[in-house]
Amino acid sequence: MEASPAVAKVLEGLVDMHCHSGPAPFPREFDHVDAAKEGDRIKMRAFVSKSHHHSTVMDIRAAHRSFAGVGTKAYGGIVLNNQVGGLNPYAVEMCVRMGGKIVWFPTFSSRRHIEFHEHALAQGFPTSAVELTTTPVLIHDDDGALRPEVAHIADVVAEAGAVLNGGHLHPDDMFELFSVGADRGVERMVASHPNFISDVTVEQGVAMAEMGVYMEHEVGMYLPDEQPFFDISTLVEWIDAVGVERTYLASDLGQIGRTHPVDAFIYVATQLLDRGFPEKDVRRMFVDTPTYLLNASDES
């Protein structure tokens, strides 16, 4: 898909904070280097690669020679699922101190996601190419108290200026996590696709935004004929309720057979502009806010 001049202007400098480039246990449509090369089509500034199973920082560092001449920069992060030891502050330290930008709390290992997964398989949800064990990674101990690792991780994230992401936690758990993050000085907190898997309500999203949390909506979920699918009116409802200043767009794409991130960004940006959103607001959600969250202003 080609961007119109107006859309190309709005998207220049875009940052994708949620890209599923490979390698990963889930089959991927493209690797980190190809994702960066494709980003150059719309003068994308950067993307953060997300794997549900391992820190992507070392992948990207190992491929540094292959990024020569590519304008779009690649960054990594870590998801606190079983495969990295769950709530493992030492794995978090390693990731962010080597340049990782996002720490996602459990996704596939969250109790919320495990409960969701059987239904999701019937919708064509991806499965790992290798057999992996999944058990719930919980943020509470057997007595219902928050595990001390939560605060430790929040401290590491705050020190690094990284993003604390709620992953696929239950909304109640997200509120507790973000409260700890705020208390520990975390400045960048995010809830990804709040209306999918975690099933955050609009009202809960507004309450999180009032705590300083950004709502990350995924352009990959607003593409006709693909699953999961939400009508663009759902996105507009969330933006109107939470506000442009606490909303941004990412892709959540890279799965085999799905639309590539660049094309999805072009499609959704076009839809929002066609619905009367001012260019400055669309640019804020695609460029300005994720650029702030990336926290890489001092990097060339």
Q: What would your notes on this structure say?
A:
By secondary structure, the protein is α/β, with parallel strands linked by helices. It has a single domain, classed as Metal-dependent hydrolases (TIM Barrel, Alpha-Beta Barrel). 39% of the residues lie in helices and 12% in strands. The chain is built from eleven helices and nine strands. α7 links the parallel β6 and β7. The longest helix is centred in the C-terminal third of the chain and has 16 residues. It is globular and about 55 Å long. Pfam families: DUF6282 (PF19799).
Helix content: 25-40%
First and last CA, distance: 29 Å
What CATH architecture would you give? Answer: Alpha-Beta Barrel
Beta content:
5-15%
Strand order of the largest sheet: 4-5-6-7-8-9
CATH class: Alpha Beta
Give the helix/strand layout:
Elements: H1 5-11, E1 15-19, H2 32-39, E2 46-49, H3 57-62, E3 73-75, E4 77-79, H4 89-97, E5 102-104, H5 111-122, H6 148-160, E6 163-165, H7 171-183, E7 188-192, H8 202-210, E8 213-218, H9 232-242, E9 247-250, H10 261-274, H11 279-294
Parallel strand pairs: 1-2, 2-3, 4-5, 5-6, 6-7, 7-8, 8-9
Pfam families: DUF6282
Put the structure in a nutshell.
The protein is of the alpha/beta class and 300 residues long. The protein is built from eleven helices and nine strands. Helices cover 39% and strands 12% of the residues.
List keywords for this structure.
39% helix, 300 residues, alpha/beta, single chain, three-stranded parallel β-sheet, 9 strands
